[in-house]
């Protein structure tokens, strides 16, 4: 061995190459064991999430397939003009032929508005029984709904012709849903924007039954109970009032954008989203305002005299009843005050001394 320290260097190299021959501190071993456990837990958690996601996808797929299979049982169909109409009751054949007759005009109208091609063949299912439709729709407020994944439109034919619903406007509304989701695929289309645009192209007609007596939007503006648009991005409320308010708000926001920024404001938002921009970025690019600022501007616009007058007109009987109640209360209070003053005068007159001899 040399005295210049060469043997020491060889020992160190040997130790690095054969660490198992040398003792490892207990604290280090514990840390390594804990680290391995963390890695195993992380991997198992990811595997569980992946399995859960895959199971959910397959469950949705099979449910949807079962739904279509059930619809396909004993169904009659007519195909023509780029659309297929399905129905079960033979009495709906006239309605099916009306769909085929009106479809080319509805398709051309949508293509002229959005400048997007309807490059798919939709299926339109006409349901002639309200109970069967409710089982499919899952809510008693709906008269129609769209399934963009299956390019399917389901219409409760028993409600067509009942104000304000017509077959043409309802079909146009639902086909608008299919067209939007056909071209906007890379990003999430907010539900309020989806429903607002479809109500706009179908002349303000929604796909749900709403009260004709008063607008839930006006009442929400006055009471300060508007639903934030962020809460309406993925789902609408299930209760009747919340659902009606969500549809009213969606229509109102889109109409505000068109009134302030023009039709191109809405179309530019949709075109940006078709190109892959998120909703917030698309709004900022098209309107030069953030989504938050747009909502604040819309809310400020709602707090105006026309909205108050519309609410009062829609609740005229309630307003008259309240005024009559207030007048009755005022008259009663005035009567009580006059009666008390009269009694006070009589008491004063009785307390005066009698000067008569």
Written description of the protein model:
By secondary structure, this protein is an alpha/beta fold. The protein folds into three domains: 74-183, Collagenase ColT, N-terminal domain (Glutaredoxin, 3-Layer(aba) Sandwich); 185-303, no CATH class; 308-337. Helices cover 63% and strands 7% of the residues. It contains 13 helices and five strands. The protein has helices at residues 6-17, 26-72, 93-114, 130-137, 167-183, 191-201, 216-223, 240-261, 263-274, 279-287, 291-302, 305-314, 316-351, and strands at residues 76-80, 83-87, 123-127, 144-147, 152-156. α8 (240-261) crosses α9. The protein is extended.
Task: Note the topology.
Layout lengths: L5 H12 L8 H47 L3 E5 L2 E5 L5 H22 L8 E5 L2 H8 L6 E4 L4 E5 L10 H17 L7 H11 L14 H8 L16 H22 L1 H12 L4 H9 L3 H12 L2 H10 L1 H36 L6
Parallel strand pairs: 2-3, 3-5
Antiparallel strand pairs: 1-2, 4-5
């Amino acid at each position: 061995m040399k005295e210049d320290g060469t043997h020491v260097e060889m020992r160190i190299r040997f130790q690095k190459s054969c660490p198992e021959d040398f003792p490892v501190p207990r604290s280090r071993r514990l840390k390594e064991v804990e680290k391995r456990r963390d890695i195993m837990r992380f991997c198992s958690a990811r595997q569980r999430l992946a399995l859960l996601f895959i199971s959910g996808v397959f469950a949705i797929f099979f449910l949807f397939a079962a739904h279509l299979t059930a619809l396909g049982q004993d169904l009659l169909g007519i195909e023509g003009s780029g659309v297929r109409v399905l129905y079960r009751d033979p009495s709906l054949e006239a309605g099916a032929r009306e769909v085929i007759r009106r479809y080319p005009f509805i398709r051309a109208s949508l293509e002229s508005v959005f400048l997007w091609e309807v490059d798919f063949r939709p299926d339109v299912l006409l349901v002639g029984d309200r109970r069967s439709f409710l089982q499919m729709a899952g809510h008693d407020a709906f008269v129609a709904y769209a399934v963009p994944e299956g390019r399917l439109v389901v219409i409760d034919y028993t409600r067509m012709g009942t104000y304000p619903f017509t077959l043409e406007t309802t079909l146009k509304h639902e086909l608008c849903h299919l067209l939007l989701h056909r071209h906007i695929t890379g990003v999430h289309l907010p539900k309020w924007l989806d429903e607002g645009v479809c109500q706009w192209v179908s002349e303000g007609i929604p796909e749900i039954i709403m009260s004709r007596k008063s607008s839930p939007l006006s009442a929400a503006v006055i009471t300060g109970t508007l639903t934030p648009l962020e809460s309406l991005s993925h789902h609408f409320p299930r209760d009747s009032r919340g659902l009606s308010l969500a549809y009213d708000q969606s229509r109102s926001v889109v109409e505000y954008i068109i009134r302030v920024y023009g039709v191109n404001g809405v179309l530019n938002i949709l075109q940006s989203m078709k190109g892959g921009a998120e909703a917030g970025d698309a709004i900022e690019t098209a309107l030069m305002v953030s989504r938050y600022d747009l909502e604040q501007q819309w809310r400020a616009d709602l707090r105006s005299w026309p909205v108050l007058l519309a609410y009062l007109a829609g609740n005229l009987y309630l307003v008259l009843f309240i005024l009559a109640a207030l007048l009755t209360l005022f008259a009663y209070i005035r009567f009580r005050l006059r009666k008390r003053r009269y009694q006070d005068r009589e008491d004063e007159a009785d307390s005066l001394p009698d000067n008569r001899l």
